Amino acid sequence: MTSPDTSGARVSRAPAPLSPTTVVFDRDGTLLDFSDMFHRFIVDLHRTQGMVPPSREVILAYEYWQAITSGRLRIGDAVVRDHVDDVVHRYMPHGRLFPGTAEAVRDLGAAGVRMVLVSSWVGATATGKLLERYGLRDVFGAVLTREELAADEAHATDAACKTLLARRALAEVGHRPGDALYMVGDTPADIASARTLGARAIGVRTGNGGRLSSVPGAGPDLLVTGAAEAAAVILREVRAR
Questions:
Q1: pLDDT at site 174
Q2: β-bridge partners, 24
Q3: Of 144, 136, 230, whose CA–CA distance to 184 is shortest?
Q4: pLDDT mean over 8-27
Q5: Which residues, other chains included, contact 97 with Cβ-Cβ below 8 Å and sequence gap of 6+?
Q6: Quick check: 238 and 113 in contact, CB under 8 A?
Q7: Integer Cα distance of 7 and 193 in angstroms
């Protein structure tokens, strides 16, 4: 980039240096509000089975999700867990980022903060398209989801999956030992992964974050309302360095 100096000549202007800070964002329940996606998936599955779905409140309850992940929930002859990846692959167009998230993430990017997104669910391609819709794909240096794991890692726990993906993402964006590192998420798996990575753990109350402990030492280092507030906190700390 060039700009005129005081004499009117064109001189080169070096780009702003990158902040030595990296943020690992969880996707579901942290950046992405997938409640409409999930609700539509369950309603459609009931309809294909000729059944009446329960209320939205019941569908979105944590206990309903637990019934799915345990394999106990059936809708007609369908075991819901066998179809649940459709939520990401087929229903992502109905997904949306939580309010204020896109703007806050852009502000971090403008400050030179490196950002990556990891998810212990599937859907890297669908996630990329969602970010493109918000004009954010280029803001994230890496977007990695569970299908990126090697075959011998495929059954890793959520925390182990996120740790493996985060380490790969950090390498891709040039994160170095000594650089500031944050992890933002809504589940105990996110907090556990942050501890393993040596990152500052910021919990959000969106998604399943209402179940995170606010007791010092038992939960995240900081618990905030959502990803937009988490980004604002990080940005303040970056600017204060």
A1: 96
A2: 116, 183
A3: 230
A4: 68
A5: 31, 32, 33, 130, 134, 227
A6: yes
A7: 54
What value does the mean pLDDT of the chain take? 92
Closest listed residue to residue 34, CA positions, set 78, 83, 82, 98: 98
Alpha-helix runs per DSSP H in 52-157: 56-59, 62-69, 86-91, 101-110, 124-133
Helices (H), 17-71: 35-48, 56-59, 62-69
Count of CB atoms within 10 A of residue 48's CB? 12
pTM: 0.89
**Strand 96-97 versus strand 32-33 pairing type:** antiparallel
pLDDT digits (tens, 9 = 90+) for 99-109: 999 999 999 99
DSSP conformational letter for 123: -
Q: What is the pLDDT of residue 19?
A: 61
Which residue matches tokens 């040039």? 174
CB 116 within 8 A of CB 175: no
Q: What's the pLDDT band for 154 if we cut at 50, 70, 90?
A: confident
CA atoms of 183 and 158, how far apart (whole Å): 14
Q: What is the pLDDT of residues 28-48, one digit of tens each?
A: 999 999 999 999 999 999 999
Q: CB within 8 A of 131, min separation 6: which ones?
A: 117, 137, 139, 140, 143
